[in-house]
Design brief:
By secondary structure, the chain is α/β, with parallel strands linked by helices. Helix content is 30%, strand content 24%. The chain is globular. It binds guanosine-5'-diphosphate (GDP) and zinc ion.
C-alpha cells in the first residue's frame, strides 16, 4: 500500500525544477516537479504528493491548476518567460530619485493589462524635494488621469505606508521597479519576515539567495499577499498583435471607439480621436510616445508571435 497522499498547495518560491510550496495549514516545504512536462511558477496552485515517511523523499508537485492569470515577460532571447501566476495586481514603484524610467513603468502596466491584471503606481520617497518638481508631478498625474490608483508615500515613514496595506487586502500583488526606488524597504515593512524567510527557504533547496534570483510569495498580516521579484528590472510583455497593444493604455483605449476606423492604431490614420486628443493636449504626449515604442517592440517580436500561432 502507498502512503502517498495528495494535497493542494501553493507555490511560494520557484527555482526551476525545485520549488517551495505552502500547504493549506500554512506549512512550507521544498518540493520537486514530478515529470518533465510539468512547469510551474510562484503563485501557482498545485497538487503535491507528500513524501513517504520512510524514504526521506521530498514532496512532488504532480499537477498545476488552471491559472487565473499568468504574468510573463519577453526575455533577452525574445522568448516568453512566465514570472508569476494568479496575480491580481501589479504595482510599479517609482521615486523622484533615481530618475524614473517611465517607459519601463508603462511596459509593466501594459504587460499587466494584457494579462488581465490590474495596475497601480506607488510614488516612494515623496518627502524628498524632488517630488515637488513640476515635471515629476505632471508625469505622475498622467497615471492618475489614465485611471490608475496612485499612492504617494515614504517607505521609511510607517504611517504613510498604511494605504498600501489597504490596497493589498484581498490582492495577490507584485511590486516592480527600478533598482534603488525603495522596493526592498517597502517589502520589508509590509512583510517583515520576507528577508529572513526568503534566505532560509532558499537554503533549504540548497541554492543560496546570492546565487539564485527567485520570486517569492509572502502573506501579509494585514491581508493579501505580496510577490517579490528581485530579478525583474527591465521589462517587455510577451508578443501580442498590434491592435492589442493599446490595451496597455487605458486612456488611449477609452478614446479608440471615437476613431473613424475601428482598427485604428492611432499612428497617422485620418479621423483618429487619439491624435486629436494629443493635439489638444488632453492626452499625455509622453504616454502616447510610450505606446508607440511598445508597438514597435511588438513588431520586432512579430516572428516569435507568428511561430507561437
Ligand atoms: P530597491 O533597490 O528598490 O530595493 O531599493 P532599497 O529599498 O534598497 O532602497 C534604496 C535606497 O533608498 C536606500 O538607501 C533606502 O534607505 C532609500 N529609501 C527607501 N525608501 C525611502 C524613502 O521613503 N525616502 C528616502 N529618502 N529614501 C528611501
Ligand atoms: Zn485612432
Amino acid at each position: 500500500m502507498s502512503d502517498a497522499i495528495e494535497t493542494p498547495a501553493r507555490v511560494t518560491e520557484s527555482f526551476g525544477r525545485r520549488v517551495i510550496v505552502e500547504t493549506t495549514d500554512g506549512a512550507r516545504m521544498p518540493a520537486e516537479l514530478f515529470g518533465k512536462r510539468l512547469t510551474c511558477v510562484c503563485g501557482d496552485e498545485v497538487t503535491i504528493r507528500a513524501p513517504s515517511q520512510s524514504s526521506g523523499d521530498v514532496a512532488k508537485v504532480v499537477s498545476v491548476a488552471p491559472r487565473r492569470s499568468l504574468f510573463a515577460r519577453t526575455n533577452s532571447r525574445g522568448r516568453t518567460e512566465p514570472l508569476a501566476a494568479n496575480l491580481s495586481l501589479i504595482i510599479v514603484i517609482i521615486a523622484p530619485n533615481p530618475e524614473p524610467d517611465l517607459f519601463i513603468a508603462d511596459r509593466y502596466l501594459a504587460g499587466a493589462a494584457l494579462a488581465g491584471i490590474s495596475g497601480a503606481l506607488i510614488v516612494n520617497k515623496s518627502e524628498l524635494p524632488g517630488a515637488e518638481d513640476p515635471t515629476f508631478q505632471a508625469r505622475v498625474q498622467d497615471y492618475e488621469r489614465a485611471g490608475y490608483p496612485v499612492l504617494r508615500l515614504s517607505a521609511k515613514n510607517e504611517p504613510t505606508v498604511a494605504p498600501v496595506r489597504e490596497l493589498l487586502v484581498n490582492q495577490s500583488a507584485m511590486l516592480v521597479g527600478q533598482s534603488g526606488v525603495g522596493k526592498s524597504t517597502l517589502t520589508n515593512r509590509l512583510a517583515p519576515e520576507s528577508e529572513r524567510a526568503t534566505r532560509s527557504l532558499s537554503d533549504s533547496t540548497g541554492e543560496g539567495r546570492h546565487t539564485t534570483v527567485s520570486t517569492a510569495l509572502f502573506r501579509l498580516s494585514s491581508g493579501g499577499e505580496l510577490i517579490d521579484s528581485p530579478g525583474v528590472r527591465d521589462y517587455a510583455p510577451p508578443p501580442v498583435e498590434d491592435a492589442m497593444v493599446q490595451v496597455g493604455w487605458p486612456e488611449i483605449l477609452k478614446l479608440a471607439p471615437e476613431c473613424k476606423f475601428n482598427n485604428c492604431l492611432h499612428l497617422r490614420e485620418p479621423g483618429c480621436a487619439v491624435l486629436a486628443a494629443l493635439a489638444q493636449k488632453t492626452l499625455s504626449a509622453r504616454r502616447y510616445e510610450s505606446y508607440k515604442r511598445l508597438l514597435n517592440i511588438m513588431r520586432g517580436l512579430a516572428p516569435e508571435y507568428e511561430r507561437r500561432r
